[in-house]
Every structure is written in structure tokens, then in C-alpha cells.
Amino acid sequence: MEQEVFRLKQQLLEKEREISGLKDTLSQLQTLNRSNKSSIELQEKVTPLAHLKEKATLSNEEIMRYSRQLLLPELGVKGQLKLSQASVLVVGCGGLGCPLAQYLAAAGIGRLGLLDYDEVELSNLHRQVLHGEDTRGQPKALSAAQAIKRLNPDVECIPYHLKLSHENALQLVQQYPPCVCSFA
């Protein structure tokens, strides 16, 4: 009987150490998550944006990241540099806006404006691929921007927690001028 009690106490101590380690890991992840969230500022009004910095070359990391599309003769390095100078405003971070933003970021767009006035709900999660359980209740624009930053930290994400209206449409659209891109 004493041996059984001793063995159980040893198991209990081992489990307590394991729980302590898991708590430390959770605390580190929560700290990291808070710092990632705070680095993206949610815009609740339209403010002027600075022009994107022009790049003369791609970094080694960018060459590795975009290596498959750089091989395309229609795109190449010149086209990738043009993509990095382009800005796109995505209106709506739902079922269509999420994959659009995801693919634009993966391709290396320079700036991505994400406009949505709604918040993430459980019923969104099965079709709005940038949102997750951990972002329920957050503004969709912020949730999408956080996911985009995890996907490609080089993309400048600007989340707008606004409803597109006739009062703000012109100001918003002017922040994201059309790009006439000829890649070949």
C-alpha cells in the first residue's frame, strides 16, 4: 500500500511539473499574441496614407518566398517589384473578401486595406477562412489583418472598422489608386 501511495505521489508531482510547463508556454503565447495584435492599429476613420516605398530589388527572403511565381516569364522580378508597389482595398472581410485578401497577401501585394464594419461570429468560421475561434467578437477587419500579417508580414495591412458610405467612399478609394501593371 505504501509503495502505491509513493508511486501516485510521484505521478502527481510529474503531472504538476507538466502543467507548470504548459502554463508557461500558454503565457508566452498569450504575450506574443497580444504584441502581434497591438502592432496592427484598427482604423475607425479614413486618414491619409503615405506612399509605399519604392524598392529597387527583392531581398533574399522575398526571392525565396516568391520563387515559384518569379519563374513565370510573365511576372519575373520586375513584375514582383510592381506587385510590392500596388495597393488594394478589399471591401468586406467575409466569404469572398477573406480568400481575396489571403491570395493578394500571398502574392506579395504591397498594401492591403481591409474594410468591414462587422464582427467575427461563430457562424462565419466555416466559410470566412481568415477568422478563427480566437477572434470571435473582434472586428472582422482586424481579425483578417492579423491573419494576413501571420501569412506575410511584409504586406502593409490597414484594417478599417467602417461601413462603406457615400460620405467616406471617395476618401477610401483615393487611398488605393489604380495600378496599371504590365508585367511582361
UniProtKB/TrEMBL annotation:
Report which superkingdom the organism of origin falls in.
Answer: Eukaryota
What does the UniProt keyword field contain?
Coiled coil
GO CC terms of this entry: cytoplasm
Against InterPro entries, the record matches this protein to: ThiF/MoeB/HesA (IPR045886), ThiF_NAD_FAD-bd (IPR000594), Ubiquitin-activating_enz (IPR035985)
Q: Which CDD domains match?
A: ThiF_MoeB_HesA_family (cd00757)
* One GO-annotated biological process of the protein: protein urmylation
Residues in a coiled coil are 5-69
Residues crossing the lipid bilayer are none
PANTHER family named in the record: ADENYLYLTRANSFERASE AND SULFURTRANSFERASE MOCS3, UBIQUITIN-ACTIVATING ENZYME E1
- Protein name (Swiss-Prot/TrEMBL): THIF-type NAD/FAD binding fold domain-containing protein
Q: What is the source species? A: Synaphobranchus kaupii (Kaup's arrowtooth eel)
